Amino acid sequence: MALLELQGISKNFGAIQALDNVDLRLDPGEVLGLMGDNGAGKSTLVKIMAGNFPPSGGEIRLADEAVHFHKPVEAREKGIEVVYQDLALCDNLTAAANVFLGREIKLRFGPLKILDYKRMYDRAGQLFAELKSETRPRDLVKQMSGGQRQAVAIARTRLRDCKIILMDEPTAAISVRQVAEVLDLIRRLRDQGIAIILISHRMPDVFAVADRVSVLRRGRKVADKTTKESSPEEVTGLITGAIQSA
Amino acid sequence: MTDTTQNAAGAMDERLRQVSIWKKLLNRPELGAVAGTVLVFVFFGLVAANSGMFSSKGIITFLEVSAQLGILAVFASLLMIAGEFDLSVGSMIGFAGVAIAIPAAVWGVPIWLAIIFAFVLAVLVGYVNGLIVVRSGLPSFIVTLAGLFILRGLTIGLTREITGRTQVSGLKQLSEGDPIAWLFAGDWFGFLFANNPTVNGIPASIFWWLALTALATWVLLRTPFGNWIFASGGDKLAARNVGVPVNSVKILLFIGTACAATLFAAIQVLDAGSADTNRGLLKEFEAIIAVVIGGTLLTGGYGSAIGAAFGALIFGTVQMGIFFTGVNTDWFKVFVGVMMLIAVLFNNYVRKKVTEAR
Ligand SMILES: Nc1ncnc2c1ncn2[C@@H]1O[C@H](COP(=O)(O)OP(=O)(O)O)[C@@H](O)[C@H]1O
Ligand SMILES: [Mg+2]
Which domains does chain A carry? Predict the structure, then answer.
């Protein structure tokens, strides 16, 4: 049984058809690489799975049950965490505040609930350490490097047990060493049984960690095969259109 | 050998810590307003020392003016941190004033009930303002500018329709014996001034100002809702993605500014014993000036309620100080404009320094 299954998903933005009848499945404990050129519709697909907007047509099934997300929190409550391509961080808040935004740790005084800064700083520090990032919990995100921002966005997905993590270009804006850390993290998460959809432009990244690769071209899915049966050359051809489909 | 290294490390730590405390201080939005307050007091302390400005009565006078503006400014600062403006608060003051006065003076409704009625209307006005802003995505500047005209027009139109005039008086007698009127217009702790015939006590508005500033600061810095206010003003999409109810936060804060205007109106109407359809004129701008002097960014996401309270204190002190020193009060507006410009330039400069220092 598929963990997550998209059936015939379409999405129009006015006259632009960003997605056209896309099927996609994600099995438990699997890393799926989602590839495609700029504008192919990858981020749109992620945002549909994440509940940012509804599809124009088609169905999302989670563990064989149809789901309709009206907002991102609903997807998260079903165990789907997201690392957005633009990272979706509040620049004016600290790293820790961003990690916990919307799920703050609170101290209770009778009916009053106040922020437990100490525990949030400590926990955020732990998460950054696990990600091998030198991000400091108290620093403002505004003043951070691409890698540190990435760590904040990823740390946010680790707050609660989840089943699926969608990562939209998590390696696009970071250093070579940090890329290795992120790929390592993806392997560790998979070993914990979390299924991951990794969107990336970087062929080596996908072939390093993905079990299967799906290719989108101009809003249509043109290939879906295991990485073992495919090759970077074939995928490049599928992305550009040199190979029609596979 | 080991000793010296340890000492050196200790000294390093010490310096790091000092730098970070200094930086923390610079990083506080209200720094400029606090410095400005000190300057203003030193200035008038020198210039107006013998004018009676710093007698008990004088102090209470400028604190009361500051307090009334401060009540508006504190709520305006919360809304501005969340990235929105409310230009309708001045008109809301006039509207709320007659919403208290007409039922009480014309229809014989008890004062306490009339006040509750005005607050209910305020909640409604704030809700509608907020709803239009979040639903339409239009700048709140425009939406509440419309509100400014609509509310003022309604106030004048309805009052003239009902009473034939633009003033409603006679509330002084009515509020005597009212169970809640003292909350707004009373003088508290009169016994402290038993041997000072010029002072009846400390006006209630001053306590409202202090309490609301403390409450707003606590909410901003200690509660999840405060976090959400900053997040809504910082990046509303990012905030919404992680489950912050951005629209509800903003609507609640619009209700907050409308209620602050109503509190202001209740204080003034009960104090003066009458309502005037022109009350609150330009208060929206005075509130924004106080908030900006207090270090809150017009773009949202950064600011402080304490800063706004200090901004109001500067505003009220200068206004009354100019009065006490006998300078022609025509110059007050020039002073306010220049002061705001200096405050904005100063805050801008400090913020740049802080970000560079990292
Ligand atoms: N919110 C939107 N409104 C209008 N068009 C959009 C929107 N989001 C994406 N698009 C369009 O949809 C297409 C797919 O975009 P996207 O999913 O971001 O591609 P990718 O992530 O694969 O680069 C592009 O043509 C893009 O311009
Ligand atoms: Mg994209």
Answer: 1-79+161-246 (3.40.50.300), 93-157 (no CATH)
